[in-house]
Amino acid sequence: MPGETVADKPLPAPLRPGILAAMVHAELPSLVTAVLGPTNTGKTHLAIERLLGHESGMIGFPLRLLARENYDRVVAAKGPRAVALITGEEKIVPPEARYFICTVESMPLDREVAFLAVDEIQLAGDPERGHVFTDRLLHARGAEETMFLGADTIRPLLQRLVPEARVETRPRLSRLEYVGPCKITRLPRRSAVVAFSAADVYALAEVIRRQRGGAAVVMGALSPRTRNAQVRLFQEGEVDYLVATDAIGMGLNMDVDHVAFAEDSKFDGRVPRKLTPPELAQIAGRAGRHMNDGTFGVTMDCRPFADEVVAAIEEHRFEPVRQLHWRNSALSFATVRDLKRTLEERAPQDFLIRKRDADDQRALDALARMPEVMDRTTAPARVRLLWDVCQIPDFQKTMSEAHARLLAQVFAHLTEGSERLPSAWVDEQMGRFDRTDGDIDTLAARIAHVRTWTYITNRADWIDDPVDRQARARAIEDRLSDALHDRLTQRFVDRRAATLSRRLKDEDADLIAAVAADGTVLVEGHRVGHLEGLSFVPEATDAADAKAVLATARRVLPAEIARRVARIEACDDAAIALDDRGRFLWEGSAFARLVAGDAVWRPEIRISRNELLEPPLRDRLLARARAWFESHQEAVAPRLVQLQRADLDGPARGIAFQVLEGLGGASAPAVETLVKDLDDDGRKTLARVGIRLGTESLYVPELLKPRAVRLRSLLWSAASGRYPEEGPPPEGRVQVVRAEATPAAYDAALGYARLGGRAVRVDMVERLAALVRRAGREGPFAITPEMLSLAGVDAETFGRMLLDLGCRPAAAAEDGTPRFERRRNRPKPKPEQSERRRRRRRPKGETAAAPRPAAPAAAAEPTAEPVPVPGEAAAGEPAVAHPPAGPPDGDAKPERQRQRPRRRKGGPKPTGAAQPPRQPTYDPNSPFAVLAKLRFGNSGR
């Protein structure tokens, strides 16, 4: 029918014989009660009271840790001789035992008791262990009273399977409230943080140790001894935080006020999956105890819970369990095939899901593929023995080949000779793990292996002298557990920090603080931080403690800070340094930094943020930093300081400003107009302040030195707020490969230009450009060894550099050698402009030469090339100006006499008949006359 659920369907009658008929007890001699409700309803307490009220009893718990906890309670009430503990790895069964505390899987159902209870019965819906709980729900009964404890979600199916059960619902004793996300550093005390893997538990515990002093660790994989020792740390207040897996959700009683989920999904053995609202509620319900209210929320990267999930948890309203997991318990041991067939028996009801791939069934499949095992399973008794061997747990949860081989060895020993495990072999196997060295993971792995042998030694029919072997297995596990507890405590608990944290909670405490000679700050003898230069670095465990620590440290820190400021004022300049991030360092610690100012060459200085620095101290530090920086600039880049102070006018002033804006350099095309307008005095003035005029760049040679380059790097970075990872080129390198992410503007500020993906120092660029110009005067040219030697690169890289130098590929030579030619991008100066430049460069008192006659229109082919006027650049090339060889203010020869003559390119060439070659005239008093005469006199022109 529409709207009808599986749970509403009645059980069919008759049931299949031999399978479910035995599961339903139509006429029970005992009272069956189901006590259902959320966590903290007192269900377990009620069951223990009912157990103790009978002459004998048995109770099954979902976790061995919980079984161990309640075993101690029953022992305290009835004495150790009357109480037995049976778990997978531990069996304490006195001869007179009347009360049996067990894990659900280990309950001896062949023993009759007056009272029987099963806790967390809703786990019958769990994919991994549900078939065991379903079996107990159907088969396990006490002679006088039976009690099932669990969540109300199982009520519909429980009433279908056990219709005679009386259902009792109990409300929660305290209120549970959702408080949303919370940073892990702000979690309230007495909190439990929940994760679902050992790695995540360890990571969270490490964070809490650093921030809050320490945390206890609880996981299902821990031995009972280790788990109890960790819980004592939390219960006794040595730590205020607990990091655990979902193991705490199964009835472990601790004084937890808040549960924080660091994750809301877990790996269920197959795939990761989200936890359901009932599962979340089971864990969150650990918050609050008895009448104390509790809270829950999320932390770390866990997303906040949806409103409907929060409402369901707070109001304990959940969808009922729709299906239970089941496996046939009426097994046939005639043959291995019959055993596997009965294990695969289908469930009799559609709301019962047949359990697949249980660990014991997987072990059976693995052993059934081994011929040496199958050869020994010749009788039903051997098949039953094989199934018992398959029940040996794989506590590492890997079902590895090594575990299958161990099971095969056990079966082989039990089916030969005395049909017992050889004592020497058992001792040897256990002895492999009797070591307490190693880290946490190593010890945990050894405990998992020893737990397997603890389980085996508890099979008295398999072992010679089982009592001795059980004692030895427990002793090894105890030693490993104690070692694991010590490792966990050492790693995740800072006892001194935890003690201080509790001391800081006492508002009336008068704490004593001091500063050690090495800068360590002590409060009550505990290290709470240290001074790094002028900054206090606290080591408090959380934000609340940090305030208390800082308040206490303020009693002694101001005087120490003042003393350190005085030391900075009095120290030599060598004691202060400027790091690659523009920070002023004293004794390795930053106290100020460069920031953008009103000009790139004039940065501001900002004192580092420090709550302990009073305004007068900040002013004194700022004055000291400014004085140091001015002195530093004078020492490493005096030309840059000279440019800032230079009193220039005319074009020279504009050029100097552009060079200053570039921190010591400027692009030649950007200032070409200003350079053209320079007269001789202007050129001399620029030479006096160190500026050299090149064809590609204007630069200051002194600012290309390594220390000056580093300062230029810091000035550019402070102004732009960017600190490229590559930084300045190494000292002595005139060219380096650059990443694309490094800004070209950064290299330009350092005095480097980008050529072919490399940063090349501008003075080297000038030399390369001159070499390329000479090679390109006659047309296309090939790369020469001289070019490669000067550039320090291979031919392919130099080809890319040529493209950035204004060249382009030309037709290859006959032998296939690549060639290049120069571009003609710049317009040819007009005749009147060239004449004006010549007049500006003409020495005083010299008259203008008579204009040359124009070339006849009918001129055919040129018979000779005109000789360029010294000092005049070829068309399409900027003029090159070099500083005078002598002192800046000494006598200098006219610029046109010092420049290297160049052949004029472009425009019509006059014929020999129209204009004979013009011979240059030389000043006989010039020191360059002989060189010029040699050049022009021997050229044949």
From TrEMBL:
One of its GO terms (molecular function) is hydrolase activity. The keyword ATP-binding applies. Residues 846-883 have a biased composition (Low complexity). Residues 813-941 are annotated as: Disordered. Signal peptide: none annotated. Keywords: ATP-binding, Helicase, Hydrolase, Nucleotide-binding. InterPro entries: DEXQc_SUV3 (IPR055206), Helicase_C-like (IPR001650), P-loop_NTPase (IPR027417), RNA-DNA_Helicase (IPR050699). PROSITE patterns: HELICASE_CTER (PS51194). The keyword Hydrolase applies. Residues 183-347 form the Helicase C-terminal domain. It comes from the Bacteria. PANTHER family: ATP-DEPENDENT RNA AND DNA HELICASE, ATP-DEPENDENT RNA HELICASE SUPV3L1, MITOCHONDRIAL-RELATED. This is Helicase C-terminal domain-containing protein. It comes from Thalassobaculum fulvum.
